């Protein structure tokens, strides 16, 4: 009897230990490793979903590289692709919280911008009650140093980059189920929202933040209570930099750069630099963290294709001028000549437009601009060889773009005003050259189309048999 009791006791002990061990990972996953978290959100519904996915990954990797002592959380809507979620969890070390998109009741407003339709998902940050404090982030933040002292701030803290309106690209909050449910109630009753997005809603929900004291972290790490304004150094607007071409933020640590403004000039797009000088700094952070493995294969394919085009046009020298027609109808010849002129002009324009849209949008700017110049040169070779045009006038736009890039990328301007005036002066001086090149192209095109080798004159004698064909 005693032996049987011992066996039962041993079996029960094994079952208890097995249950505890099996349940441990689930507890860690639910509660998180740390008591605080950096959080961001992802949702689908805009043409730039992939770019924001890349931006989110770079930001998460940069936070990990800084050694922050907090969990990384991504609030992802249910329509975010599963393989993106798995990548965020397995490769970037993030905890992904799947949520349903919050209905935006303000989408009928006259000033509503549809790219902000799902930004109210940011309110889910208040539902992360497993954490003491959460720093909620937009994906266009560039961290220069660790900011874990923000977890000492109170129930709500944000930065005023606008004199009267705080910015919701970075703010600190204390998660609360009560606050979260009240926010959802305010959405239902239609609380006033000037822009219909998260910025306007949260600004109306915390209307007195401007009157609150400035946040200063305590030396002993004590968490503060109440609402606070954050120093500008936690949300350094990139537009401040472009005026002086260096940072001049007197209050607080210069910790985080934010890039509000035009969505097509976000720093992860290759064409944003050197138009906006800070873009290269974001890409340097990506190079050190995520890399460019996703874009390199397509870049290599395009490079080989463009080099092949250049070689073929130089070796074979195809010429559409050998597309000869023998017609007695003067009207038909006029239409053919006009059509060929239009084709020639459009082919030159396409040579400078098409490569821009083929380049992966999130590739490094140096690779992007290099591939663009190679592609436009290769396609220009087709036009100038097909219509027997002089090389220099056709390549004047190519040289002008290269010169503009060098002028904008020049690193020793004293300030942004001098840089802008220099770019304007360059454009002013380059305009007559571009016009002269266009006139030269039209003149040469006219001669090329009218001359004997292209369309034989009607007064000529009959051409040998077999001449009227494509060769």
Automatic annotation (TrEMBL):
SUPFAM superfamilies: Nucleotide-diphospho-sugar transferases. Residues 176-217 form the HECT domain. The keyword Glycosyltransferase applies. GO terms for molecular function: glycosyltransferase activity; ubiquitin-protein transferase activity. Keywords: Glycosyltransferase, Manganese, Membrane, Signal, Transferase, Transmembrane, Transmembrane helix, Ubl conjugation pathway. The keyword Glycosyltransferase applies. This is Glucuronosyltransferase PGSIP7. Gene3D superfamilies: Spore Coat Polysaccharide Biosynthesis Protein SpsA, Chain A. Residues 1-23 form the signal peptide. The chain crosses the membrane at residues 296-313, 334-354, 366-388, 395-413, 425-449. InterPro entries: GNT1/Glycosyltrans_8 (IPR050587), HECT_dom (IPR000569), Nucleotide-diphossugar_trans (IPR029044).
């Amino acid at each position: 009897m005693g032996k049987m009791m011992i066996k039962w006791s041993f079996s029960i002990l094994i079952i208890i230990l097995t249950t505890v061990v099996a349940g441990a990972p689930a507890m860690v996953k639910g509660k998180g490793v740390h008591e605080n978290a950096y959080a961001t959100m992802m949702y689908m519904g805009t043409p730039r979903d992939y770019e924001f996915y890349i931006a989110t990954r770079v930001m998460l990797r940069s936070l990990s590289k800084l050694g922050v002592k907090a969990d990384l959380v991504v609030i992802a809507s249910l329509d975010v692709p599963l393989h993106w979620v798995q990548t965020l969890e397995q490769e970037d070390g993030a905890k992904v919280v799947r949520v349903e998109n919050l209905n935006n009741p303000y989408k009928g407003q006259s000033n509503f911008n549809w790219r902000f339709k799902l930004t109210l998902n940011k309110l889910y940050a208040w539902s992360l009650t497993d954490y003491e404090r959460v720093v909620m982030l937009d994906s266009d933040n560039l961290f220069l140093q660790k900011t874990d002292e923000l977890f000492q701030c109170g129930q709500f803290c944000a930065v005023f980059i606008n004199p009267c309106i705080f910015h919701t690209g970075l703010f600190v909050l204390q998660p609360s189920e009560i606050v979260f449910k009240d926010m959802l109630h305010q959405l239902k009753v239609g609380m006033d929202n000037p822009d219909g997005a998260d910025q306007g809603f949260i600004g109306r929900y915390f209307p007195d933040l401007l009157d609150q004291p400035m946040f200063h972290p305590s030396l002993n790490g004590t968490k503060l209570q109440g609402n606070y304004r954050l120093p500008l150094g936690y949300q350094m607007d990139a537009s401040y930099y472009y005026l002086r071409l260096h940072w001049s933020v007197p209050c607080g640590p210069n910790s985080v750069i934010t890039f509000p403004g035009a969505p097509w000039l976000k720093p992860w797009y290759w064409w944003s630099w050197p138009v906006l000088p800070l873009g290269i700094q974001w890409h340097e952070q990506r190079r050190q963290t995520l890399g460019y493995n996703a874009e390199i294969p397509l870049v290599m394919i395009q490079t080989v294709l463009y080099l092949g085009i250049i070689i073929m046009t130089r070796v074979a020298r195809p010429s559409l001028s050998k597309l000869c027609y023998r017609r007695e109808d003067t009207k038909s010849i006029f239409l053919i000549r006009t059509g060929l002129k239009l084709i020639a002009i459009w082919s030159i324009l396409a040579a400078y437009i098409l490569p821009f849209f083929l380049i992966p949008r999130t590739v490094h700017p140096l690779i992007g601009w290099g591939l663009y110049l190679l592609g436009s040169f290769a396609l220009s070779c087709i036009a100038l060889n097909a219509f027997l045009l002089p090389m220099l006038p056709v390549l004047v736009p190519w040289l002008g773009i290269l010169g503009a890039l060098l002028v904008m990328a020049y690193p020793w301007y004293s300030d942004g005003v001098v840089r802008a005036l220099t770019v304007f002066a360059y454009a002013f001086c380059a305009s007559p050259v571009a016009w002269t090149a266009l006139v030269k192209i039209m003149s040469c095109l006219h001669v090329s189309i009218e001359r004997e080798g292209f369309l034989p004159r009607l007064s000529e004698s009959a051409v040998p048999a077999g001449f009227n064909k494509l060769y």
